[in-house]
Write a structure and sequence with these properties.
The complex is a heterodimer of chains A (232) and B (90). Chain A is of the alpha/beta class and 232 residues long. Helix content of chain A is 23%, strand content 25%. The termini of chain A are close together. The chains are: A alpha/beta (232), B alpha+beta (90).
């Protein structure tokens, strides 16, 4: 199975995402924003970073880059697409997920190991979790406040499209503590925290067992493997 | 060269943390009567040739689709800059 990771100008976590794909047992494929070529991948990750320096709005310019025409088509035909942090912002700007992401309500950039509750496992990227499972992965953003109008929020809740919710603290003022979403079909998932930074012992968040031993993020990438194998 | 100005503001009901920080600074400087500050964006589009109705319609579309995000922002104004006034000001 081939999982592509798109590099945009200003992407930061593309290498980490490629590494996470490899550690999960899939073949990582580097994709380039300026091309119209998905190189035959079976799933796509839009990584974190600050594409185009967050000019205009976070993710707004990247969402209109050449490769996004193919990414949007692929997403609409059911290919798994995961947007992490800036990737989530790109998915929202590309209208593949609803709502918007604005500057953190407290005005500061925040970086912390963030506890989350898994709210939906009906997606290509979350099927390896259990509903209600609590996980810890790093969070780092300046503009991670999720907003949408009340009707949209009610629809997201009613249709079970909230994939992750913040636990302990709401780090950025996101409405209803929403940390991540999935689409109706379950192939598109976006979230602000970073699963690709919690995939290898020695480099993840601290756990009660040992320092830096948290690997809760790996399940995102093993989930997509089983999702794609199941549909093949 | 004609200039089309597009102004975009964060939606009124949304928290504007940047504006709030500026308002806080103004209050610290003693400007208590300035109750609230909201920060928006002004785009100046310099265009070749005449500003036609067709071009304005295109800009209107671009303002809605790309220069703003309707979930978090409103386009509050699209107008052609008054060049005579701008030159007189210089």
């Amino acid at each position: 199975m081939r999982v592509g990771v798109v590099t945009f100008p200003g992407s930061l976590d593309d290498r980490d995402a490629l590494r996470a794909v490899r550690l999960a047992g899939a073949e990582p494929v580097a994709l380039w924003h300026g091309e119209h070529d998905l190189r035959g991948v079976d799933a796509i990750v839009l990584p974190g970073g600050f594409s185009y320096g967050d000019y205009l709005r976070c993710g707004a310019i990247a969402a209109r880059s050449p490769i996004m025409a193919e990414v949007i088509d692929a997403a609409n035909s059911g290919m798994p697409v995961l947007g992490i942090c800036n990737g989530f912002q790109i998915l929202v700007e590309a209208h593949l997920l609803p709502g918007g992401l604005i500057r953190n309500d407290h005005g500061d950039f925040i970086r912390r190991d963030q506890r989350l509750r898994v709210e939906s496992t009906d997606s290509a990227w979350t099927n390896g979790f259990e509903v209600g499972q609590e996980i810890t992965i790093p969070l780092k953003n300046g503009e991670g406040g999720f907003i949408a109008d009340e009707a949209t929020l009610d629809r997201l809740e009613g249709d079970g499209l909230v994939a992750f919710r913040y636990l302990d603290v709401n780090p950025n003022g996101s409405l209803r503590d929403i940390a991540g979403l999935r689409n109706e079909r379950g192939n598109v998932v976006g979230l602000m925290p970073h699963p690709e930074h919690a995939v290898e012992p020695g480099f993840g968040p601290d756990t009660s067992l040992a320092m830096r031993s948290g690997v809760d993020g790996l399940t995102f990438f093993t989930s997509v493997l089983s999702a794609t194998l199941a549909s093949a | 060269m004609p200039t089309i100005v597009v102004e975009v503001m964060p939606k009124a009901e949304l928290l504007d943390p940047a504006g709030k920080a500026v308002a806080g600074a103004l209050h610290r400087l003693g400007h208590e009567t300035i109750r609230d500050v909201r920060i928006g964006k002004r785009f100046e589009l310099h265009v070749d040739g005449e500003v036609t109705d067709e071009l304005l319609a295109t800009v209107e579309q671009l303002a809605a689709d790309m220069l703003s995000n309707g979930v978090i922002e409103d386009v509050v104004s699209i107008h052609v800059a008054d060049l005579a006034q701008a030159e007189a000001a210089q």
